[in-house]
Write a structure and sequence with these properties.
By secondary structure, this protein is mainly β. The protein has a single domain, classed as Sandwich (Immunoglobulin-like), CATH 2.60.40. Helix content is 11%, strand content 36%. The chain has one helix at residues 2-21; strands at 49-54, 60-62, 69-73, 80-83, 86-88, 100-105, 111-115, 120-124, 132-141, 150-152, 158-169, 178-179, 185-188. Strands 1, 3, 4, 6, 8, 9, 11 and 12 form an 8-stranded antiparallel sheet that branches. Strand 3 (69-73) and strand 4 (80-83) form a beta hairpin. The termini are far apart.
Amino acid sequence: MRRAGILRLLGHMAGIAALFVMPHQATAGPGTEQTATGIAVAEIVAPLTVTAIADLDFGGLALQSSNSGSIALDPASGAASYSGVRQISCDGSPCSPQPARFAIKGIAGRNYRVVLPDSAVANPIEGNGAGLLVSAISSASANLPGSTDRGLLDPDGNDLLQVGGRLDVPAGTTPGHYVAQLHVVVSYD
């Protein structure tokens, strides 16, 4: 009998211990309510600003009237690759090609996304000549090398974004100055 009493006592102790180990859930009995309080938070950040510093400039080009050609401008290095066209001076002074440059300013250390058009048409400033296709438009961030659609703001919240592309010059293109608008959109990641 003594053994059965000990087992019964251990059984009661295990049941009491189980009450303390089981997680407690708040349950509402009939006619009572339970409430909880949470919080809502938000972070408001300063918007990114984009300031144009320099235009995408393919420079002065010469082309034989029976041939077509192109120039491709790397946004990171500014290196130009010529095919069927050659670089010339403009109005008696050198006019080297250069990528467009934009100053980006925002929250320090933040990444941002760059959206560029796939292509644009450069139309003559004077006259009614056919437009020239600007394609392969891409960008390069000074703070995030190797990326073509993202940038990184430095500890002061600044970055330099450069934009390059390819200009196709068909045979028989009318001589003149050609201009295209390139819309650059940046937003925080």
